[in-house]
Each structure stands twice: as structure tokens, then as C-alpha cells.
């Protein structure tokens, strides 16, 4: 892959003898090959010119640099080694930065406005001082892409910010704001934006005159603890990394690289950083996370919709129908982005409960230090309660979030059509019901759309935007804009039972139930699935959402896809004994006072009863399944359904299904999403396994869909291109 040919740096030398090198590569001044090559050329010129006394590095238009150009990773992955000169490979090695900039006899100062991420911060740390504005943010987010900092960040950040904070910044990929950066010593001063360059120029000259310290961060040691203490910090970080990300190698590699620099010196650390960086760049984890990075940014590109030149209309007021868990969560998400909200309920008691939930959600932010009391009160003042539709006459969007009852939703949408203005968007948060059915009694099909949030709605990052064949492109563009403003990742999907996420994953629990009724242990299944990287297994998830929701959702699929659903009586039998999941302290697990889940020996009797009624017998092979077999038997039916969703055009792109699986169901992002992960096995293998199980067990449930069969016959990947 190439880099942006317009990426470059410019250099201007002032009368004061300071050369200002500016990074120019919109929109975030990323460090493409062109930029890095130009940066080196400008630096060498500045160092050789007699009229240049000192150097300032900055970024154009209020952004220092968003870091290395990720689109160029493919080019680097194709290369070998690391200490290669820019003119031969198109990119600058860390040794060039160290030897050309840091070891130069002319001082350099980084003038940071806006973001200094990844390679951008690494360039800044090579300089001898850093001056920032109040809105600057500094961070090394490389680990979120499956790699480690590769331009010296693992060595310089601990020496500037301290070991503990440096490890925290790298391992969490979270940036720090300028005030914290100043207190850490990562920046040397904070100044107004209009004084940034003049201050940086003056600072550089004062370094030259020895009135400010001339600091080579690579050899700075005052922030590093004694070796024994440093090793304790590193070992604690390792233990945390293993606990929080047991499937990931690169956080441990990052810690090892930091340790190498502390134990053997910074030059040895740089060498190890380079070697490990190249190795990680070729890893499956890196490829998966980079795929997710681009897939997430591609969800808002909808052919035939976002390429029509439509401008989003301003949504000034939103109404929510239903103040339950979903409605209150949606209201919270909107309020946090300063949307005035009307929350409607059917009676005073329900309305008080709904407003109370919103208040509790916001207070949680106050307790966590994410919101001040003043901001809390101002945000809550944007919420108004209602028991009728009188206040709906000037709303721009309504989101219905009542129980999954078709006739109730139909009545609500008929009422909304009467009371809301003609331009008002009529959205439903339904998770499974056909939108055409919901809008059957209206004449407003062009403004009816699905706005499916995931619980808890103010926390979960996905917004499933469901369009019918009659939904106006303008309405879709409007909702995409709202999704962006409330910090959700929107995925536009077609109208069908379960839409994308719930439809893809309905076989998830059903496959697990099939295995249990034929002899596989419930807790072994959940353990294998969580070990794979899911937040929880299918049975723990059932307990969390509640048996009522699980049965209601499952019945939609039994009704609409009877030929390929697995019908189990297990959950219904447990419901008869007043088990409903976590809320009743008993489900597939039993729960103590702290809601901790524990295996329940009584579960066996329900499994045996379900088995007897259904006439299912234990299969000895399924009592001894490996974790690999469990994963395949649970997830391959999900892949099969995802292939149907893709082939039917419900999803615009296969990568949208990857994002939906990661953000809607918690599929591990470091595996690239459901379709990307499936292609690591190959269509032939998945098809043959499903075909094998189809012959052995419930035929329709495992039967490969026509799209999968076609891809397997060609030996082609599931996703083209």
C-alpha cells in the first residue's frame, strides 16, 4: 500500500536563526514515508546551514501528528530488517532520529498543538524540549494495533514520564492531556496557541545559550527507579497484562523491551524494540487489529447513501418512549452529548423510575471522576419527563424503546405520526421485529428507521441503524450523524428478523444447548468460549440477559427460520421452577450476595429432563470435546448465518459484520471479527465441518448455506478482495 503523495514537511528559517519544520499531511499530519523522508531531508539541511542556530518541529493546522501512517504498514511488512536509510526504503529508522536529531549540535524543540500520538510523540520525545498548548494530547496507542512503539517510544517515555506512568500509557493506549503531561515532565511548558511557535523558538535559543537544559531524553535517568524497584514494577505490569489479556503476546513484549533498556542500556533497548516491532508487525494479532481499525472507520461509507452529497439535518430535540433499562440508557447517551431529551412513560411511577435510572447513570460518571457536580446538574436539566404527546410537536427525532410487542409498537407509531412534525425521524430500538410490520399502520415509511442500541446503551459502542427499502437516504444520513455525535460506531444494515448482530448470533446459544443435551458440560463450554476471548460464555450470557429475553428473542428465530433453529426445552423447564437467570439468583449458575456466578449441581436434573422429553441421547464423543471442537461447533454456525446475512445484502460490507460482532457481541477484536476470523480457517474447512455435523446431528441447524458451499467449491475466501 502506498502513502499520501502530498505528505511532506516544509522548513522556514527566521531572522532569529530558528528553522521551523512543519509536518503537513492532512487530516492528522500522519507520518507517511514521504513525510519522514522529507523530515530527515529538512533536518539535515538545517544542521548543515550556517544561518540555522536551532530547530522547532510542529504540525500544520493545530495538529502536531497523529502518528505513523497505518496505510503504509503493508509496505513495511514486506521489508526486512530495520536499520535502513530513508532514501533506500522510503522511511526513517529510529537510529536516524536518534543520531541526526537527538545527538545534533543544534537544539530541537517540539511545538505541540492538538494530538501527538504514536510516532508523532516519538518524534517529539527525540527533541530536547516540548512546548504544548492547553488542548494537546500525548500518547502511544500502538498496542491497540497489536504492535509496540517502534520509533524509540519504549525507551524515551519511561525516562521522561517515569516507568509506572509510561507502562500505563503504553499498555492501555490512553493519551494524557497537556496538564498531566506537564506534571509528568513529558512537556516543559503550556502556552496559548497563538504563542506556541514564538515560545518554542525562544526556548530553543535559550537551550543553545545554556539558559535552558539541553536534555537528551534517551540518556535521562533521574525518573528511573533503582534496578530492583524497577523490576518489581515491571513484574507487576506483567502479572496485570497476563490477567487482563491472557491471549495477547505484544503487551508482554512491550514490557520486555522496556526492561531491556533499563537493564542493558537505552541503545540495547532500541535494538530490541526494532527487532520485536518487525516481528509483531507480521503477527495475526496485528493484522486483525489493523483490519478492525479500518473496518470501524469504513462503517459510515454507504454506497448510494453517503455519496449523494446530503448534509445531515440538525437534530435539536429528541424524545424517548419508554424509561426502562434501554430507554434510560439511550436518554443518557443523548444527554451526555448535550441533546435535550423528553422521556415519555405511561404513568407517574414508571416515569419517576425512568428519570431515576438516568440520574443514576449520570451520577456514576460523577463518582468515577468523569463529570463534575456542576456538569451533572446542567446535563440532567436537559431531561424533561412526559406522560402524553403534547411536547412532541417540535421534536426532530423519536426513539421508541418499549417492550417487544408488535401491536403496542404499531399503536405507538400511529400516534407518533399524528403528534410529531412531518420532518421528525421515527426510530425504533427493536432488536428483532420487522420495521415494516411496526410501521404497518402509518403512511410515514420514508422516515421510519431502526436505531438498535445495545445494553447498557450509554456504554456499549455499537449503534445498529436498520433501513427498510423505503427509508429515506436523508434519514439514514441524519442518524449516522447522531451516532457519531453520541460517540457510537454506527453500522447500517437491512431490515430482517434480528437484523445483523442478533441474527448472526442466534445460533450461538442454540449450538451450545445442542451440545449440552448431547453430553457436553455446560461449564466446560463457557470456559472454552471465555478462554477464546469472549467476555462470557453463552450460558453466563443467558443468565445475564434473563431467560425471559432469551426465550422471547429465540422464539422470533424459531418462527422465522424454523428449518434451521435448534429447539431446546432446557430453558423453559428451568423457568417452570422460577429460575430466570441472575435476577432470581438461579439460572445456569447460582449467584451469591455479590452476584458472583458459581456452578450449580442441580442443573443436571433439568438437562436430563430436557433430554428425555426430546428423545435425545448422549453422544460419547461430545462428552470429551476439546476446546477447539467446542469453539468450532459453537462459532461455525454463527459464521454460517453471517454468510447468509452478507449474501442477502443485509450488511453493506463483510467488514461491517466484523465490527458488529466485536462491538455488539464482544467478539475479541484481536481476532479480527467473525468473518475475518472465519477466513483464517478457510471456507472449505468450515463447510466440511458443518456438513459433517449436519449428517450426525440436527440436519438443518448445521447445514451449510448456499453462499458458503459456493465459496468452498471454488476454494475461495468468504470475503472477496
TrEMBL record:
<dbReference type="GO" id="GO:0004165">
    <property type="term" value="F:delta(3)-delta(2)-enoyl-CoA isomerase activity"/>
</dbReference>
<feature type="domain" description="3-hydroxyacyl-CoA dehydrogenase C-terminal">
    <location>
        <begin position="498"/>
        <end position="591"/>
    </location>
</feature>
<dbReference type="InterPro" id="IPR029045">
    <property type="entry name" value="ClpP/crotonase-like_dom_sf"/>
</dbReference>
<keyword id="KW-0520">NAD</keyword>
<comment type="similarity">
    <text>Belongs to the enoyl-CoA hydratase/isomerase family.</text>
</comment>
<protein>
    <recommendedName>
        <fullName>3-hydroxyacyl-CoA dehydrogenase</fullName>
    </recommendedName>
</protein>
<keyword id="KW-0456">Lyase</keyword>
<feature type="domain" description="3-hydroxyacyl-CoA dehydrogenase NAD binding">
    <location>
        <begin position="317"/>
        <end position="495"/>
    </location>
</feature>
<dbReference type="InterPro" id="IPR008927">
    <property type="entry name" value="6-PGluconate_DH-like_C_sf"/>
</dbReference>
<dbReference type="Pfam" id="PF00725">
    <property type="entry name" value="3HCDH"/>
</dbReference>
<dbReference type="InterPro" id="IPR018376">
    <property type="entry name" value="Enoyl-CoA_hyd/isom_CS"/>
</dbReference>
<dbReference type="Pfam" id="PF00378">
    <property type="entry name" value="ECH_1"/>
</dbReference>
<dbReference type="InterPro" id="IPR006176">
    <property type="entry name" value="3-OHacyl-CoA_DH_NAD-bd"/>
</dbReference>
<keyword id="KW-0276">Fatty acid metabolism</keyword>
<keyword id="KW-0413">Isomerase</keyword>
<keyword id="KW-0560">Oxidoreductase</keyword>
<dbReference type="GO" id="GO:0005777">
    <property type="term" value="C:peroxisome"/>
</dbReference>
<comment type="pathway">
    <text>Lipid metabolism; fatty acid beta-oxidation.</text>
</comment>
<dbReference type="InterPro" id="IPR036291">
    <property type="entry name" value="NAD(P)-bd_dom_sf"/>
</dbReference>
<dbReference type="GO" id="GO:0008692">
    <property type="term" value="F:3-hydroxybutyryl-CoA epimerase activity"/>
</dbReference>
<dbReference type="InterPro" id="IPR006108">
    <property type="entry name" value="3HC_DH_C"/>
</dbReference>
<keyword id="KW-0576">Peroxisome</keyword>
<keyword id="KW-0511">Multifunctional enzyme</keyword>
<dbReference type="InterPro" id="IPR006180">
    <property type="entry name" value="3-OHacyl-CoA_DH_CS"/>
</dbReference>
<dbReference type="GO" id="GO:0070403">
    <property type="term" value="F:NAD+ binding"/>
</dbReference>
<dbReference type="GO" id="GO:0006635">
    <property type="term" value="P:fatty acid beta-oxidation"/>
</dbReference>
<dbReference type="GO" id="GO:0004300">
    <property type="term" value="F:enoyl-CoA hydratase activity"/>
</dbReference>
<dbReference type="GO" id="GO:0003857">
    <property type="term" value="F:(3S)-3-hydroxyacyl-CoA dehydrogenase (NAD+) activity"/>
</dbReference>
<dbReference type="Pfam" id="PF02737">
    <property type="entry name" value="3HCDH_N"/>
</dbReference>
<keyword id="KW-0443">Lipid metabolism</keyword>
<dbReference type="InterPro" id="IPR001753">
    <property type="entry name" value="Enoyl-CoA_hydra/iso"/>
</dbReference>
<comment type="similarity">
    <text>In the central section; belongs to the 3-hydroxyacyl-CoA dehydrogenase family.</text>
</comment>
Amino acid at each position: 500500500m502506498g502513502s499520501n503523495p502530498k505528505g511532506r514537511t516544509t522548513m522556514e528559517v527566521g531572522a532569529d536563526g530558528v528553522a521551523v519544520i512543519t509536518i503537513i499531511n492532512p487530516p492528522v499530519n500522519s507520518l507517511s514515508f514521504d513525510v519522514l523522508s522529507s523530515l530527515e531531508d529538512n533536518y539535515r539541511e538545517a544542521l548543515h546551514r550556517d544561518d540555522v542556530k536551532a530547530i522547532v518541529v510542529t504540525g500544520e493546522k493545530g495538529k502536531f501528528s497523529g502518528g505513523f501512517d497505518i496505510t503504509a504498514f503493508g509496505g513495511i511488512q514486506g521489508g526486512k530488517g530495520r536499520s535502513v536509510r530513508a532514501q533506500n526504503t522510503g522511511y526513517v529508522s529510529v537510529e536516524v532520529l536518534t543520531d541526526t536529531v537527538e545527538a545534533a549540535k543544534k537544539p530541537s524543540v517540539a511545538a505541540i498543538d492538538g494530538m501527538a500520538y504514536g510516532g508523532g510523540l516519538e518524534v517529539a520525545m527525540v527533541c530536547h524540549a516540548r512546548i504544548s498548548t492547553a488542548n494537546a494530547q500525548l500518547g502511544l496507542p500502538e498496542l491497540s494495533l497489536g504492535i509496540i512503539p517502534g520509533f524509540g517510544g519504549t525507551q524515551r517515555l519511561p525516562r521522561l514520564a517515569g516507568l509506572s506512568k509510561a507502562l500505563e500509557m503504553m499498555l492501555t493506549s490512553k493519551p494524557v492531556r497537556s496538564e498531566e503531561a506537564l506534571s509528568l515532565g513529558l512537556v516543559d511548558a503550556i502556552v496559548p496557541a497563538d504563542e506556541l511557535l514564538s515560545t518554542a523558538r525562544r526556548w530553543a535559543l535559550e537551550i543553545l545559550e545554556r539558559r535552558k537544559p539541553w536534555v537528551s531524553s534517551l540518556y535521562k535517568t533521574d525518573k528511573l527507579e533503582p534496578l530492583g524497584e524497577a523490576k518489581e514494577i515491571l513484574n507487576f505490569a506483567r502479572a496485570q497484562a497476563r490477567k487482563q489479556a491472557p491471549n495477547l503476546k505484544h503487551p508482554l513484549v512491550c514490557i520486555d523491551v522496556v526492561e531491556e533498556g533499563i537493564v542493558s542500556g537505552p541503545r540495547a533497548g532500541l535494538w530490541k524494540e526494532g527487532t520485536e516491532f518487525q516481528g509483531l508487525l507480521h503477527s495475526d494479532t496485528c493484522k486483525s487489529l489493523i483490519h478492525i481499525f479500518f473496518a470501524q472507520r469504513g462503517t459510515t461509507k454507504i454506497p448510494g447513501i453517503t455519496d449523494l452529497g446530503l448534509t445531515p439535518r440538525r437534530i435539536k430535540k429528541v424524545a424517548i418512549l419508554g424509561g426502562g433499562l434501554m430507554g434510560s440508557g439511550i436518554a443518557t447517551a443523548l444527554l451526555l452529548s448535550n441533546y435535550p431529551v423528553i422521556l415519555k412513560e405511561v404513568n407517574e411511577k414508571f416515569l419517576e423510575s425512568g428519570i431515576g435510572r438516568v440520574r443514576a447513570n449520570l451520577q456514576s460518571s460523577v463518582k468515577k471522576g468523569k463529570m463534575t457536580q456542576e456538569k451533572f446538574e446542567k446535563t440532567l436539566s436537559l431531561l424533561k419527563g412526559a406522560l402524553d404527546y403534547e411536547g412532541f410537536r417540535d421534536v426532530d427525532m423519536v426513539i421508541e424503546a418499549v417492550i417487544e410487542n408488535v401491536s403496542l409498537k404499531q399503536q405507538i407509531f400511529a400516534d407518533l405520526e399524528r403528534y410529531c412534525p412531518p420532518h421528525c425521524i421515527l426510530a425504533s430500538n427493536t432488536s428483532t421485529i420487522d420495521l415494516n410490520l411496526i410501521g404497518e399502520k402509518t403512511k410515514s415509511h420514508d422516515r421510519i428507521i431502526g436505531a438498535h442500541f445495545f445494553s447498557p446503551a450509554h456504554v456499549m459502542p455499537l449503534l445498529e441503524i436498520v433501513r427498510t427499502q423505503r427509508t429515506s437516504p436523508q434519514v439514514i444520513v441524519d442518524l449516522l450523524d447522531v451516532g457519531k455525535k453520541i460517540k457510537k460506531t454506527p453500522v447500517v444494515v437491512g431490515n430482517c428478523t434480528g437484523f445483523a448482530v442478533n441474527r448472526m448470533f442466534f445460533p450461538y446459544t442454540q449450538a451450545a444447548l445442542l451440545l449440552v443435551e448431547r453430553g457436553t458440560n455446560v461449564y466446560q463450554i463457557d470456559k472454552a468460549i471465555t478462554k477464546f476471548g469472549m467476555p462470557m460464555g453463552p450460558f453466563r450470557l443467558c443468565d445475564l440477559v434473563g431467560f425471559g429475553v432469551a426465550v422471547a428473542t429465540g422464539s422470533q428465530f424459531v418462527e422465522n427460520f424454523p428449518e434451521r433453529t435448534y429447539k431446546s426445552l432446557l430453558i423453559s423447564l428451568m423457568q417452570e421452577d422460577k429460575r430466570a437467570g441472575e435476577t432470581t439468583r438461579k439460572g445456569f449458575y447460582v449467584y451469591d450476595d455479590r452476584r458472583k456466578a458459581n456452578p450449580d449441581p442441580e442443573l443436571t436434573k433439568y438437562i436430563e429432563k430436557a433430554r428425555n422429553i426430546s428423545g435425545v441421547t448422549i453422544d460419547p464423543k461430545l462428552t470429551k470435546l476439546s476446546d477447539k471442537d467446542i469453539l468450532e461447533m459453537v462459532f461455525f454456525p454463527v459464521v454460517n448465518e453471517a454468510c447468509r446475512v452478507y449474501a442477502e445484502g443485509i450488511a453493506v460490507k463483510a467488514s461491517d459484520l466484523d465490527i458488529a460482532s466485536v462491538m455488539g457481541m464482544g467478539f475479541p477484536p484481536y481476532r479480527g471479527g467473525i468473518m475475518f476470523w472465519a477466513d483464517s480457517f478457510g471456507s472449505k474447512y468450515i463447510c466440511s465441518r458443518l456438513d459433517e455435523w449436519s449428517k450426525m446431528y440436527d440436519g438443518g441447524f448445521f447445514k451449510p448455506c448456499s453462499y458458503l458451499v459456493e465459496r468452498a467449491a471454488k476454494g475461495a475466501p468468504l470475503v472477496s478482495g
